[in-house]
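Quick question: what would this complex look like in 3D?
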Amino acid sequence: MLADKHKSEIKAILKKYPAKEKRSAVMPLLFLAQREYGHITPAALVEVAELLELDPTEVGSLIGFYTLLHDEAAGKYRIQICTDLPCALRGAEELAKRLCANLGIRLGGTMTNGLITVEEVMCLAGCDKAPTLQVQDADGIHYHENQTLGSAMELIAELMEKGSDG
Amino acid sequence: MAEHILLRHRDIPDIHELDVYLSNGGFDALKLVVQKKTPQDVIDIVRESGLRGRGGAGFPAGVKWGFLPQGVFPRYVVANADESEPGTFKDREIMERNPFQFLEGVAICSYAAQAKLAYIYCRGEFWDLAHELESHIAELRKEKLLGRKLFGKDFSLDIRVHLGAGAYICGEETALLESMEGKLGQPRLRPPFPAAEGLYGQPTVVNNVETLTNVPPIINRGANWYNSIGTKESTGPKVFSLSGNVERPGNYELPLGTTFRKLIFEHGGGIPNGRSIKAILPAGASAPILPATKKVLDTGMDYESLRKIGSDLGSGSVIVVDDSVNIAWLAQKITSFFKHESCGKCTPCREGTYWMSRIFENLENGKATSEDIDLLDSVAQSIVGKCLCALGDFAAAQVVSDIARFRSDFDARAKDGK
C-alpha cells in the first residue's frame, strides 16, 4: 500500500492544496504510484481514488488523458523522443527510426530485457537543442538534448547497466 | 538591446543564486510595493507599462488584473508554466537561469491581486525544473521573502508548484485550472473568465511565466521606461525562441517590433547547409505560416504588424523552414500534433483534426487527388470559430494558410498533381 510506505510524502502532497480541494492532489499521487510500481496498477488507482474520495473511474479517465501517466507496464526506462516539427527539421524522426532499428524494436516497443521502451512524444520545449529526448523512470523525468544516434545509444547502455543492477 | 531585462543571466551568470539576485536589486520591487504602494497602484503601473500577456494571446496584463471583482476572497494567482507550444522554450530558460526574477514577479502579482496563495503550474516534463523551483521557494521562505507579514506589513504569501502530466491543452488558462483541480484538462465555457471564477471558483489571475518576469523591472524602473521599449502598442522586450533550419537556434531577447530578418539572419546566423529560407512559422504551430518574402522578412515582430500580414505573434516562437521542406509534410506534422493534443471536448476539433489527418495520410501515400486537397481545405474551414478554445482554430488556420500560400507543394503530392 502506498499509504504505508509513503505516508509523509502523501501528507506533504495533500498539504499543498486547500483542505476541501484535495482532489488537486490526484496527479501528484498518481505520479507517486507510478514511480513506486512502474505504472499505475489497478490497486494503486483504487487506493488513490479512496484517498481523495473520488470514483476510480474518474481517476482512470485522467490516466487516459495525460500522456505521462501510464496504466500499462513498459520498460523500466521510457526513452521519449520528441519528433515534433522543430525537432523533425533537425533529424529527430530519422534518429527515432535508427535508434529503434539498432535496438531491434518498433517505435513504442520494449526490449526483451524489459528495461528500455522507446516512444515518440510531442514537443518538450527543447527545440534549440534538437533532437531532444527525455527519460521517464522511477526517479522522475530527465532531459537529454543535442542527441545523436551515438549519444542516445551510450545513454541507453548506461541505463541498461544501471537497470540490471537494481 | 545590450542589456538583458528578462534573460538577465546572460549578463550576470550566477543570478539563479539568491544572494547574487539580492545583491543585484532582487526583491527591491516587492519590498517597494508592499511597503509603499497599494495593490491598485501596482495594477495601474502595469497597465500604463502596456505589458501584454506573453503566453500567446497578448492581452494587457494590467487590464486582466483589474478585472478581479471587488471584495471576493480568497483569490489566487496561477503562473502558467505549461510551455508546450512546438518551438517555444523561453519560459524554461527563464525559470532555469533567472528563477528569482520570475518568482518575484509572481509575488508582486499576488500582492496586486491580494492573493495569499500562488501556484506555478509546470508541465510534467519539467520535473527537474519544478523541483529546483521548489527549493528556490524554500530559500525564499527561509529568508522571509515569502511567508507571513512580509516586510512588516499585513501581506502574507506562499507559492507552491503543481506538476501537470502531459497535455498541451493545459496551456489554455481554463483547461489549466481544470487540470489543477484534478480534472481532465478541458477548457471551460467563458464567461465567467478566471478573474471572476477561476481556481476553485474563486477570483484568479493566470499569467504566463515571461509576462510575470517583466513585472519586477517595470516596478523598479517605471511604466514610462518600459513603454519606451518596443512599439507603441506592443511595448517592452520579448524573448523570441528561434528554432528549425537556422544556424544558431536559441532564445533571443529583443524589443517587440524587431524584424524577422534581424532575428533570423543577424542573431540566428541565417540558414545552414547552403539552403535558402522558404517559410516562417511565427508562433510555433499556432499561427498561419508566412512565405519568407522580402516584405515578411522586413516585418516587425509585434502583435499589430503580424496581424496586418495575416498571421500572429503568439508566444514568439519562430520556426524557420528552408527550401528543402515540402509544406504539405509540415502541415501533416502539425495536424497530427493537434489531433494528438485535442482534448476531445468540442466535436469540430476532435473530429476535424482526425479527418484532416486521414486526408494527409492519403496524400502521403499517393492516394489523394487535388479534389482531396480542396476537401482538406473545406474540413479545416468548417472547424474555424466553432470550438470553446483556440486549439481548433489554430489547427484549422495552419492547414488553410499552408494550402493557400503553398498550394503547389500539396499538388505535387496529389496523384493527379502537376
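Answer marked as accepted. Chain A has eight helices and four strands.
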